[in-house]
Specification:
The protein is mainly alpha-helical. The protein contains nine helices and two strands, in the order αααααααββαα.
């Protein structure tokens, strides 16, 4: 029998080094692109569900199916993990929302719209360098790269910001700042 999406997500979260300074610097460019892709995907889900009650992080599963709840044992394990390992309020919220999303996906009979997984880019970003915190100007800073957070509707795009495979992400990191600015200009232009 294959692992549930809940167990897979819990295992992925457990492997994240939330204060990974080495990863933050080595993967700054790919992490910035992953945040842009998360914002794009979350905006698609916000549009489909009539808005985002919180932005840029919101409980998409709770918005779509508030009656679907996590198993109490999973909730307890998750809360223990958060208490022992996660420090930022945003990261705590994302952990809960990602596991709740996995719970919704694992719930028999649930039909989800044909939209991309909203949390995959965000979890990949954490796996590549830990937490990132929004500053007072509503931007995420990745070394010297900034990802500005606008209204959710400003992040809507039918085209992915980046592919999520390791080869593409590693190539972005090798190309560095230049690839980020070329892509940012292309997306803005």
């Amino acid at each position: 029998m294959s692992k549930s999406l809940i167990e897979t997500m819990m295992e992925r979260l457990a492997c994240i080094k939330w204060t990974n300074l080495e990863g933050r610097n080595a993967h700054a460019t790919s992490r910035a692109w992953l945040m842009i892709e998360y914002l794009r995907r979350a905006a698609l889900w916000a549009e489909m569900s009539g808005g985002a009650p919180r932005w840029p992080y919101f409980d998409i599963a709770g918005t779509l199916a508030p009656d679907v709840q996590m198993d109490p044992e999973v909730t307890e394990r998750l809360e223990e993990y958060i208490e022992d390992h996660v420090e930022g309020v945003s990261a705590e919220f994302v952990c809960r929302a990602a596991v709740r999303w996995a719970t919704l996906q694992d719930t028999p009979g649930v039909q989800l719209p044909d939209l991309p997984d909203p949390f995959e880019p965000l979890i990949l970003m954490y796996e590549r360098g830990g937490e990132v915190i929004m500053d007072d100007s509503r931007a995420f800073n990745f070394a010297d790269l900034r990802v500005q957070v606008n209204l959710w509707s400003d992040h809507l795009s039918p085209e992915p910001a980046t592919a999520l495979d390791p080869d593409t992400l590693d190539a972005l990191d090798r190309e560095g700042r230049a690839s980020f600015h070329r892509g940012s200009q292309a997306a803005a232009g």
